[in-house]
Amino acid sequence: MNRPAGAVDTHLSPSLFSGSLGTEPLLAVDNLHVEFTTRQGVARAVNGVSYSLDAGETLAVLGESGSGKSVTAQAIMGILDMPPARIPKGEIRFRGTDLLKLSESARSQIRGQQIAMVFQDALSALNPVFTVGWQIAEMFRVHRGMGRKAAYAKAIELMERVRIPAAKQRVNDYPHQFSGGMRQRIMIAMSIALDPEILIADEPTTALDVTVQAQIMELLAELQRESNMAMILITHDLGVVADVADKIAVMYAGRIVENAPVHDVYKNPAHPYAKGLLESIPRVDLKGQELYAIKGLPPNLLDMPTGCAFHPRCPYKQDECVTEVPPLHQISGTRSSACHYWREVLDGTAG
Amino acid sequence: MGRYVVRRLLQAIPVLLGTTFLIFAIVYALPGDPLQALAGDRRVDPVFAQTMREMFHLNEPLLVRYWYYVRDIFSGDFGMTFRGLPVSTIFEGKFQVTLNLAMTALLIEAVVGIGLGLIAALRRGSWADTGVLAFTLLLVSIPTLVSGFVLQLVLGVQLKLSTGIDFFPVAGLRDGWRSYLVPGIVLAGTSIAYLTRLTRTSLMETLRADYVRTAIAKGMPRRRVLGRHALRNSLIPLVTYLGADLGTLMGGAVITETIFNMDGIGRQLFQSVYLRENSVVVGIVTVLVLVYILANLIVDLLYAVLDPRIRYE
Predict the structure, then answer these.
(1) Residue A222 counted as domain residue
(2) pTM for this prediction
């Protein structure tokens, strides 16, 4: 299940797997660009993101608001509003087929059935005027052509599977009659209804209490184990990631700045931004000391800094960083970092 | 739910009292003598005038007269006209005409307004959207008086003269449901514009909602996303508007009925104000207020059907 991520490296040699290699991953995002046309100009939300995902694997995409992590996910799902969004470059290959080249109707066959998504705020993501049973059953009725009764029976089954108490009675309740955690469970039940191969969870626990957060993450991990589903977990919560993810992609200003197996990043980050994120986690052993925060603000997508987008906030900044965009340096078979001085960053923490 | 309806109906009583009193006071304050209005240019016989004044309590102060009126209303008596006819016989058949007209207008308004609004919202920014918006602007800028006479002339007269198509009657009520078509369009005019814009905004807002994105992410076909997930949610403000508009349309019938010579309460109201037939004026307004209150009650009950988050205990 946990195949080494290094076996497929999309970052340096994307051309390698257009054919000959028999190791095409389940999902490969390749040099994806997404931009939004706004009145103030063109906002480049995603600038050449590449990542890949194998069956059963969990990729955590980390980054602050506006880093492009959600936009990348929405591009994979095909739920971006186009216009104003545009995808000028890049490929999203699912089992070798470029989703971006498919027709809208072909894509809607993949959405929900093969690639499903869980959204952040289940209260607004569920339709307020239909019962939860209706909304889950809709998956079976529309995609599987099931009758009302059979579909509702399936809905109850799924609600039990995500451990909603008294599912049989609650199937006819409306979303507002559930608590936040229960609503997110319903959202999850709906997304796994048709056994998708990939589940994209876009900050699934952000809107929830801390205790409920843990339960939801546990549920997601358990469902994933049961069905060998691949998962893209989008989050800005580093605490959530460590237990669940196999590998991490850290995003900043629409680019991936570090790409690595989860434990490598925690042990020893290779990008100043990833390092800053880790150091800003509150730690028991540093209780009483001031909490570290990365200086400055995320960049304005309409007015990106020159060179490395992180340079105005970076403690490792050199002249080169202001002028030269750092490529994604390959550190090892499974790791890469988009920092001119990744060696220094690595050593800094090691020493 | 039952208790809610009863409570709302009880609340209607003070509203009815307040509105009837206002109308009563306004009619009372109108200049001119109703008996002189009855006699036209001729001199009114003083003995007759004296008898009439006593019979209709015309010499009593406002509050006393209002009290007599309310007392009679609650025993189901709308009073008498100065010509000696019971007001209720004047109403006969006329409310039906106005209700037919208002319902025709409401139907036209709903179909055209929601239809155009949907087109505009789904093709936001296109020439169709711009066209619809320009059209609504045109509609609100034309007063009923103008659109009424123009449509009457074009559809009722010139269409027949130039093409021989005798479909739209010029005026009157002799042609069954067809008599209501052109007046219905005229009456619906401005309301169509408002409803179109409301539909456009409401649907555009719903289309941006998270649950619509969820429906797309669930792989639902576009038609289902729009027809099931978006439309039901955007209907809620539209139903409110349509319900409140029924009252406006019945009130607006005054001009339309006069232009198209339709024997409804609108034209009756106009004539009665002219003749200072106070009891008829107040009677008509009372019934209109009642219709308005009932329409609003139905709207509120429809809310609960459309939106499960709303419950009346």
Answers:
(1) no
(2) 0.77
